[in-house]
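My current task is to audit a protein record that another person submitted. I need someone to confirm that the token line plausibly describes how this chain folds. Take the sequence as given and treat only the tokens as open to question. This is what I was given:
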Amino acid sequence: NNLGVALRILGRDREALVEFRYALRLAPDSAAVRANVGVAFFEAGEREQGMRHLRRAIELKPDPPQARFALGVVLLGLWRADDAREQYRILRGLDPALAATLGGALLTGW
């Protein structure tokens, strides 16, 4: 998982995705790994896959705001503004600053 994060920071998204998939095999019920896999899929242009993994991360651990924020961004990328608004509403109670960022994206249409 950490190697995948480092590769993503370096902009090596496809390599990061390989590492995240490996981490997922080792820890399929890790919300953090699922969230990282979801973001990596999104950044690789595979938004539906990203959404699926982010939703699973939230099922596993609903309170961390980063997965909800990432899911909101993915939903906006899929033109699903109503679903993104739902993540915004939940996020407002978890992390108002992240919610404001997502809200700005909702207002501008991204």
Notes: The mean pLDDT is 90. Residues 76 and 110 are 7 Å apart (CA to CA).
